[in-house]
Amino acid sequence: MKPKVVLTSWVHPEVIDRLAKDCDVVPNATEDRLAREEILLRAKDADAIMTFMTDSVDEAFLAACPRLRVVGCALKGYDNYDLEACTRRGIWITNVPDLLTIPTAELTIGLLIGLTRKVLQGDRLVRSGSFDGWRPVLYGAGLTGKTMGIIGMGAVGQAIAARLQGYEMKLFYADPRPLPADMEARFGLRRVTVDQLLAESDYVVPMVPYGDDTLHLIDASAIAAMKHGAFLVNACRGSVVDEEAVADALAAGKLAGYAADVFELEEWARPDRPKRVSGRLLADTER
């Protein structure tokens, strides 16, 4: 008998076909998230389960799935998984460390350019029908000659630094572990403290994993330490940034702009996570 594998989210058909060669696959044929109760119903006699960022695998989950031997995490982070509980039960848990390294780096730079060059505002102006030719508006800010600060120089941070070559920027990074000297030289990176990075950077990009020590790493006090008129881009984890503090800083003009691909509401394992993106943050469409 083939092992039973439950997929909690939609995946490409070729993935299902590949699994089906060796397993009895129970897919999620919709684009909607499955409720925890539905997942447990499907996985109660499963040998393996493929999970995603919206899922949480804890002691109670494992107790309800006594045959489970493998938990596959189709993501990089694993803070929403009880590793100790899996270990005690002899359950293998896997992740994909380099799943989104390059896409995240590319998106971060795209967000940075779109934010500083006011791409969305220009698009809205043209689509509104009121654009009648050039006027001295929506100039935005450039990257050349400015200072970029990256907090966290892991795989994604390094990929960002590599792709910023050619922009003639000064590149700071803050990380407990220094890069090899030859890599710093190749990318033009200078290791500084977080305090110096915040104080001197025109653009700040946190790129750290989520955990107790990085929850609201960029909070009101961190923003207060930043240069007046700096830009902030978050493409790592939503709860690394305090969205209400960002909304305050945008309203006060402390931050010139904020761009994000991740939001606090997506921190599925955080008990007190917001259930929606801050309305105050969304209301500031110009920055």
Overview of this structure, please?
It is a single chain. This protein is an alpha/beta fold. It is 33% helix and 16% strand. The chain is built from 12 helices and 11 strands. The chain has helices at 13-20, 36-43, 59-63, 83-88, 101-116, 119-128, 155-163, 181-187, 194-200, 220-224, 243-252, 279-283, and strands at 4-7, 24-26, 48-51, 70-73, 92-94, 147-151, 170-174, 189-191, 203-206, 230-234, 255-260. The strands form 2 sheets. Strands 8-7-6-9-10-11 form a 6-stranded parallel sheet, sandwiched between helices. Strands 2-1-3-4-5 form a 5-stranded parallel sheet, with helices on both faces. Strand 3 (48-51), helix 3 (59-63) and strand 4 form a beta-alpha-beta unit. Helix 5 packs across helix 7.
Structure summarized in a few sentences:
With 287 residues, the protein is an alpha/beta fold. Helix content is 33%, strand content 16%.
- Level of helix content? 25-40%
Q: Poorly predicted ranges (pLDDT <50, ≥5 residues)?
A: none
Cα-atom radius of gyration: 22 Å
Write the CATH fold name of the largest domain: Rossmann fold
Briefly note the structural class of the backbone.
alpha/beta
CATH class of the largest domain: Alpha Beta
The number of domains is 2
Order of helices and strands: EHEHEHEHEHHEHEHEHEHEHEH
- Individual helix count: 12
- Outline, from the CA principal axes? globular
Integer average pLDDT: 93
- The CATH level-2 architecture of the largest domain is identified as 3-Layer(aba) Sandwich
Q: Main sheet: which strands, in order across? A: 8-7-6-9-10-11
Q: What proportion of the residues form beta strands (DSSP E)?
A: 15-25%
Compute the separation of the termini in Å: 57 Å
Could you give the count of β-strands? 11
Largest sheet: 6 strands, parallel
